[in-house]
């Protein structure tokens, strides 16, 4: 795997971990891991997880609040 491809997989995963850790500003989380372009962030996140980052953040929050 090339370094660029590795980075394109690692950064969205790091954002998702931030979103799992607690309520966060999605754009701020993307910026914190190195994205300078919101559209690039959204595109790479959607490519890896299948949903836009905002929707995924809401789903993660709902799942963490759901009783077992």
Number-wise, the strands total 0
- Using the coordinates shown, work out and report the CATH topology: Arc Repressor Mutant, subunit A
- Note the main sheet: none
Q: Specify the CATH architecture.
A: Orthogonal Bundle
**Overall SS class:** mainly alpha
Order of helices and strands: HHHH
- CATH class descriptor name: Mainly Alpha
Distance between the termini: 38 Å
Average pLDDT, to the nearest integer?
89
Helix amount: over 70%
Low-confidence stretches: none
Number of domains: 1
**Strand composition percent:** under 5%
Radius of gyration: 12 Å
Question: Quaternary status of these chains?
Answer: single chain
Shape: globular
Q: Number of helical segments?
A: 4
What does this structure look like?
The protein is mainly alpha-helical. It has one domain (3-63): Arc Repressor Mutant, subunit A (Orthogonal Bundle), CATH 1.10.10. Helices cover 75% and strands 0% of the residues. It has helices at residues 3-21, 26-32, 38-49, 53-65. The radius of gyration is 12 Å and the shape is globular.
Question: Which tags fit this structure?
Answer:
4 helices; Arc Repressor Mutant, subunit A; mainly alpha; 68 residues
């Amino acid at each position: 795997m090339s370094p660029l491809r590795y980075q394109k997989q690692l950064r969205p995963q790091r954002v998702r971990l931030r979103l799992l850790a607690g309520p966060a500003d999605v754009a701020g989380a993307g910026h914190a891991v190195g994205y300078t372009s919101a559209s690039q962030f959204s595109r790479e996140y959607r490519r890896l997880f299948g949903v836009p980052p905002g929707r995924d953040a809401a789903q993660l929050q709902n799942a963490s609040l759901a009783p077992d």
